[in-house]
Amino acid sequence: MTVDKKEMVEVVRRMMAAPSCCAEARAAGQRWLDALGKADEAAEARSLIAELEADLVPIDGLIAFTGSAEGVALFGAEKAKEFNAHGREIKAKGAKYCDCGACSAALEVLDHRDVLLK
């Protein structure tokens, strides 16, 4: 499937709108959007890609975090338990990464990074 920059703009916007998107990824996405068509577009694309590579949560990381005291403190005991069970379920089906809105969109951006760098 061929993806163009216009489609990637929508993916980045979807990522930024996800409640699970961290502030750093949201800021990197906005900087890239603001740089479109300008001299610093490629630099901001590289910055966005680096941020998403750092932020994308491997499935084992999701499972470990949601099973930890820190995960319980962040999500609450019941939500952490739900997220942990979900992580185990999708891992059993072959998932390699978290499937939240932010991670799913980030993975799509990373899979098509060449489009951002054109």
Walkthrough of the structure:
The chain has 118 residues and is an all-alpha fold. It contains eight helices and no strands. The two termini are 17 Å apart.
Terminal CA distance reads: 17 Å
Structural class: mainly alpha
**What's the count of strands?**
0
Shape field: elongated
**What's the gyration radius in Å?**
15 Å
Low-confidence runs (pLDDT<50, min 5 residues)?
Answer: none
Quaternary structure: single chain
Keywords summarizing the entry:
mainly alpha, 118 residues
Outline:
By secondary structure, this protein is mainly alpha-helical. Helix content is 74%, strand content 0%. The longest helix is centred in the last third of the chain and has 16 residues, at 77-92.
List the topology elements.
Elements: H1 5-17, H2 23-35, H3 41-55, H4 59-66, H5 69-75, H6 77-92, H7 101-111, H8 113-116
Helix pairs in contact: 1-2, 1-7, 2-3, 3-7, 4-6, 5-6
